[in-house]
Structures are given as structure tokens and as C-alpha cells.
Design goal:
Structural class: mainly alpha
Radius of gyration: 21 Å
Shape: flat
Number of helices: 17
Largest sheet: none
């Protein structure tokens, strides 16, 4: 029972941190809506650089934007590759919530590699058919209330918004406040658990402050933003999956280490785990990859396994690409798998 309680507490901590980061990213995303990308057509360097930067945005937002720009002929295939290499999808949130230093290291590695591979692919593959080339629309998430900047899209008449006590707004505010208080009073700290590196008080206070900032923004936001963007997109689509996969992965580690001796099995079959990480990375979905983050955070799997998983997978940002251009999806995944497995193998045999 104590093990289950510890796993639940750590899962709530990670999910809460992810929730705060996702909400902040959603506010930033709406702020960037409506910008024109037409000027990118004249520069391959800018196209590849933009795509790689979009991939660095935690979650699916940047990846979806890059896929949309590619399928409409604004970005070339090399730029699409750059995004798919630099992105880690929703797993990026969990990485920063559990192993922030390693997350920064991965970012520092993946971004220049994304630029290099994107440039190389662009030189080798001069042209690639795209589904909607030449059309003047982009499949980005937009709404009439979300096309006039952050003031109109998120706040509008904030004095009126703050008086609205809808069910969704109240639940969001109460949940955020409860998480902030839990962080502030150290209720989610877990000194004994090796992976719970957010037990340091200053990190908890930092995220508590970010949580309070998110509370203020949520209180001032208009009802459309609350209902469609925060509740419909983040709460219903992302949070349940992240919590369940995180809970499952942590429970697997907590039970497996003392009873199943997973650490010994991984030590004896390390390269097999790396190969499995690469194969599971081909799945265009967030969730299955969290097991490798949990294995690394627990000190069971080496960095090479985490690197391979992060390089090959891209969360579910490639799902729209699979729907629009299966040929581009297969080609991009094949390139990522080959390079990721090769580099991961080199790291593994170097003892990393």
C-alpha cells in the first residue's frame, strides 16, 4: 500500500507540473496565432531553423504547425525532418518534470542535429510531393475569438470574465490552487524516491509561482478559451493519458525493481532495450515512450536508451502527416529510425 501511495503521489506531482506547463504553452500558442509564414518561402535556412524551433516547443503545438506548413507547401521535406527530430512531443513535459538537467542536455543535442539532418535531407531530396501545395490556407487550430492577439483571444473583457463561475473554470481554478498549495507546503515531496528530483524546495516554489500565474490567467480568460482550449484540448485529451501512462510506468518500476529485478535484467539486456526503444519510437502516439523516461530516471536504463527513444519518437505530432501523406510519414520515420538507432548504438557501446 505504501508503494502504491508513493507512486500515486509522484504521478500527481509529474502530472501537475505537466499541466501547469501545458497551460502556459497554450496561452503562448494563442498569442502567436494569425502570423503569416509566406516570407519563409525564400530561405531554406530560415525554413529549417523555424521547423527545428517549432519542434522544441513541448507538446504537439509546434509539431502540428510544422506539419500543416509542410502539407501546404510552405516548408520543404528537410524542414519537416528538422521538426520531427527536435520534437519529443508530450514526453518533453514529463522529461522536464522528472529529469530537467537531462531534458536540457537532450534539447542541446537534438536541436543542432535537427538542423544538420534537415539541411542534409534538403540537399539530397530536392522535391517531395505535398498534399495541398499551392493552396492558401493552413490547418492550424483557429477560432474567430483567437485571431486577434492575446488580448482579444484570451482576456477580452477580463473584468466580466472573472465574474463567470462556469463549472469548467471553477474546476480548473480549484485544481490549480490545490496543486500550488501542495507544492508550497511540500505535500508532494518524496525524499526517498530517487526519481523525485522536484523535492527540492526552491524548485517546488518556482512551479508554485508559475501555477499562481496560471491561476490568474485562467481566472481572466474568456469562456471560449476556457472551454475549447484549456478544457477541451488539455484536460480532456492530454492529461488523462499522461497521468495513466506516468502512473503505469512508475508502478512498473516500483514493483519491478524489488520483486522482478528489472535493473539486473536491463543491465544484462541493455542493447535489446535500446532496440525496443527505437521500435516503439515508430509509434505516432504519446504514452508508450514514458516507460523509457521512467527507466532512466530510476537509474535503470542508460542515457543511450533515453536518447534513442527521444530521437526516434515524436509523440503524436506526426499523426496529421500520416493522415495527409503516408509516403512522407514512412520516409521521415525510416530516416529517424536509422539515424537514431545508429547514434544510440554508438552511445551505448561507448558506455553511455
Amino acid at each position: 500500500m505504501e508503494v502504491l501511495f508513493d507512486v500515486l503521489k509522484n504521478s500527481l506531482l509529474i502530472t501537475g507540473l505537466v499541466m501547469v506547463m501545458m497551460l502556459l504553452i497554450e496561452y503562448i500558442n494563442i498569442h502567436s496565432q494569425g502570423r503569416s509564414f509566406e516570407r519563409l518561402k525564400g530561405s531554406r535556412i530560415r525554413q529549417i531553423g523555424l521547423a527545428a524551433l517549432l519542434g522544441l516547443i513541448p507538446g504537439c503545438i509546434g509539431g502540428f504547425a510544422a506539419v500543416s506548413l509542410y502539407t501546404h507547401g510552405i516548408l520543404p521535406f528537410g524542414a519537416l525532418m528538422a521538426m520531427m527530430i527536435s520534437t519529443v512531443g508530450d514526453e518533453a513535459f514529463v522529461l522536464f518534470a522528472t529529469v530537467p538537467r537531462t531534458a536540457l542536455l537532450l534539447t542541446a543535442i537534438l536541436f543542432p542535429m535537427a538542423l544538420w539532418v534537415g539541411w542534409g535531407v534538403d540537399k539530397l531530396i530536392k522535391s517531395h510531393p505535398v498534399p495541398f501545395a499551392g493552396k492558401d490556407h493552413y490547418a492550424l487550430h483557429q477560432h474567430d475569438d483567437c485571431q486577434h492577439g492575446i488580448h482579444t483571444a484570451i482576456w477580452g473583457d477580463w473584468k466580466r470574465n472573472i465574474k463567470i463561475f462556469s463549472f469548467k473554470r471553477v474546476i480548473l481554478l480549484l485544481t490549480l490552487l490545490a496543486f500550488v498549495l501542495a507544492l508550497g507546503f511540500g505535500l508532494l515531496e518524496h525524499e526517498e524516491h530517487e526519481a523525485a528530483i522536484f523535492s527540492e524546495q526552491w524548485i517546488n516554489l518556482l512551479f508554485a509561482l508559475l501555477g499562481l500565474f496560471t491561476v490568474v490567467l485562467t481566472a481572466m480568460a474568456n469562456e471560449h478559451f476556457i472551454s475549447e482550449h484549456l478544457w477541451g484540448h488539455i484536460i480532456l485529451k492530454h492529461l488523462p493519458r499522461i497521468f495513466l501512462w506516468t502512473f503505469g510506468a512508475l508502478l512498473f518500476i516500483a514493483v519491478g525493481l524489488p520483486y522482478l529485478h528489472i535493473d539486473l535484467w536491463v543491465a544484462q539486456n541493455g542493447y535489446f532495450i535500446l532496440l525496443v526503444a527505437a521500435l516503439i519510437g515508430l509509434i505516432p502516439e504519446s504514452g508508450p515512450h514514458l516507460i523509457f523516461i521512467a527507466l532512466f530516471a530510476s537509474g535503470v536504463a542508460p542515457f543511450s536508451v533515453l536518447f534513442t527513444s527521444s530521437f526516434v519518437q515524436d509523440g503524436h505530432t506526426a499523426l496529421p502527416l500520416l493522415a495527409e501523406s503516408k509516403k512522407a510519414f514512412v520516409k521521415a520515420k525510416a530516416i529517424k529510425f536509422t539515424i537514431g538507432l545508429t547514434l544510440g548504438s554508438l552511445l551505448y557501446f561507448c558506455g553511455l
